[in-house]
């Protein structure tokens, strides 16, 4: 293999492995949904991104730098959308886990209580953000200036570009729930919060 081949291969963005089996979130999210969502949608964003940046100056940037570099730039909308969706989905898979929900680790729980009053109030804000996001997008728990906060973003937008630290996310694009819940987005969101949300991942992201 020549050195050029090595460099080009190293510059490609990769689809990270799912952190669990495709059927591990069943019955809250079916293996059928995960199969399409991870294997077609997420993979599609990674593949499209690699095609769009091939041979350009953006090809050498890390995913995070690529998102920062293309955010808000009219001539780089497609690259931003596919880069941000690549990042958002990897973050979403890690925001879920089999037998999730339940109680956050103590350090995170204290921060939640300081910012929202109690865990239920935090979950309710996340559910409200997720169900009121008009059209496609994401609901997020973020850290902003030392305080936890719930925000929502449309389409591919990500809090990464807004000076806050994402802690966990819920995908509310229809492809995330339509096969299992059809139009009942609230049922999907509440089931995710009660049974799959990975508070441990959010706690790790607190740093
Ligand atoms: Mn998605």
Q: Would you mind describing this structure in some detail?
A:
By secondary structure, the protein is mainly alpha-helical. The protein contains 9 helices and 3 strands; from the N terminus they run H-H-H-H-H-H-E-E-E-H-H-H. The protein has 2 domains: 4-12 and 30-94, Helix Hairpins (Orthogonal Bundle), CATH 1.10.287.990; 106-206, 3-Layer(bab) Sandwich (minor pseudopilin epsh fold). It has helices at residues 3-11, 31-53, 63-70, 77-95, 106-116, 119-132, 178-181, 185-195, 199-206, and strands at 137-144, 147-154, 165-171. The chain has a 3-stranded antiparallel sheet. Strand 1 (137-144) and strand 2 (147-154) form a beta hairpin. The protein is globular, with a radius of gyration of 17 Å. It starts with a helix and ends with a helix. The structure holds manganese (II) ion. Manganese (II) ion binds at residues 37, 41, 89, 171, 173, 175-176. Residues 37, 41, 89, 171, 173, 175-176 line the site of manganese (II) ion.
SSE topology sketch:
Blueprint: H1 3-11, H2 31-53, H3 63-70, H4 77-95, H5 106-116, H6 119-132, E1 137-144, E2 147-154, E3 165-171, H7 178-181, H8 185-195, H9 199-206
Antiparallel strand pairs: 1-2, 1-3
The structure holds manganese (II) ion.
Manganese (II) ion binds next to α2.
Beta-strand percent range: 5-15%
Radius of gyration: 17 Å
Q: How many DSSP E strands? A: 3
Helix content: 40-55%
Along the chain, the helix and strand elements come as HHHHHHEEEHHH
Largest sheet: 3 strands, antiparallel
How many discrete domains?
2
What is the mean pLDDT? 94
**CATH architecture field of the largest domain:** 3-Layer(bab) Sandwich
CATH top-level class of the largest domain = Alpha Beta
Classification by helices and strands:
mainly alpha
N-C termini distance: 40 Å
State the CATH superfamily name of the largest domain. Answer: Iron/manganese superoxide dismutase, C-terminal domain
